[in-house]
Amino acid sequence: MNGNHFSLILLATNQCNAACEYCFEDKTRDHLSIERLGLIVDKVLDHMDAHRIGAPTIHWQGGEAMLLPPQWYLEAFALIGEAAAKRGIQVDHGLQTNLLPYGPEWDAIIAEMFDNSVSTSLDYPNLYRKLPGRSPEHYDALWASKVRMARSAGIDVKVISVLNRATLEIGAERFYEHLVDALGVTDFQINTPFPGGEANTAKQALELDVAALARFHCELADIWLERGAGRDVRIGPFDQLVNYFTHRDATLPCIWGQNCADALIAVDARGHVAQCDCWVTSYPDYRFGNILESNRLSELLRDSPARRRFTERPVHLVQRDCIDCDYLALCHGGCPVRTYSRHQSLLEKDPYCELYKRLFRHIEDQATRLAGAGAMSPPTTNQGEDALGS
Ligand code: SF4
Ligand code: SF4
Ligand code: SF4
Questions:
Q1: By the 8 A CB rule, do 96 and 59 touch?
Q2: Relative to the alpha carbon of 326, which ligand is closest?
Q3: I need a surface site. Which of 5, 113, 128, 235 has the fewest CB within 10 A?
Q4: Parent domain of 189
Q5: Residue 47 is part of a domain; what is its CATH number?
Q6: pLDDT for 79-130, tens place per residue?
Q7: Which intervals of the chain are annotated as region Disordered (predicted)?
Q8: What b/e sequence results for 152-179 when a residue is b if at least 16 CB atoms lie within 10 Å of its CB, and e otherwise?
């Protein structure tokens, strides 16, 4: 594992208050104790020292991360800050939450630990997100009230939205109007769905027509470029693709990374280590090991046959499926978990390949046109990771 930035997805609890039908996590009642957190943090920082990685970000999530109390995060923040200071490094923290347990008691720790910002999830229309025994409409209303409450406390609320068949039916115009104009969300990321974890009826219905999905992406990108980009509205991945195609610094989502195994790992509340949140709870055969049972994280990662399957994937794809692609240097074969949940193999290219190609071409054309017209003022940051869902 090389490079100067490292992301740790840390599942503070494997428990969740919601019961989203498409959830890829195999939830349990486990949560991290402060003592176990200390052991994990020491091993992660040792690993970073060994590989000269200087800038870690911990993405806190679950299950539902807010099921642990604010006081727990206060202790966790102090513990991590102390351990990092001894090594002369700084750890950044991000919080991915469904926001439903949020109340004013969270405000102080969100300000101190998370820079007064949270990332949450909203699909529109919402088909799958709900509380146990309740409707998606009930979820949406509760979520909206929590967002209002958080914003009134000065918290910046970012959104991840997973597209579904109803989103494609209403189209890009209504989707943009709802999120940006009606809900006032000005920083969001759209994700493609995948049937991760145990199969069920909802997950069987997640597959979308790729041509329709590509059309939706391109139309939404155009609406954003016309109405939002100049007004500080950020939509990932469009904003970062514009940056990429205009040779600016771009923070592309992990699905297009050179190899996600080089950039992040996930650790769940039992200490299991895997590639990201979906793998760590739902695919036991693909776990890299258990950090609490291992002396060193570096050895665990180095010796893991499961991790080797991830590190070898891009080379395999480049030699076979992606070698002639114009966007190989941007996409690298796409996301392993989207591939695996469709093909039960890592050694295929991402099932959204055709969407990516059409979107890349469209944004490249638009970025070239706008740069030529001197009309470019895209934002330069986004939420960074794709793996983060709650
Ligand atoms: S979402 Fe896909 S690309 Fe991102 S870390 Fe997980 S497997 Fe890798
Ligand atoms: S767009 Fe398709 S062919 Fe090109 S690198 Fe990505 S997965 Fe491979
Ligand atoms: S998708 Fe997130 S919020 Fe919904 S049940 Fe799964 S872990 Fe909980």
A1: yes
A2: 2
A3: 5
A4: 5-372
A5: 3.20.20.70
A6: 999 999 999 999 999 999 999 999 999 999 999 999 999 999 999 999 999 9
A7: 371-390
A8: ebebebbbbbbbbbebbeeebeebbebb
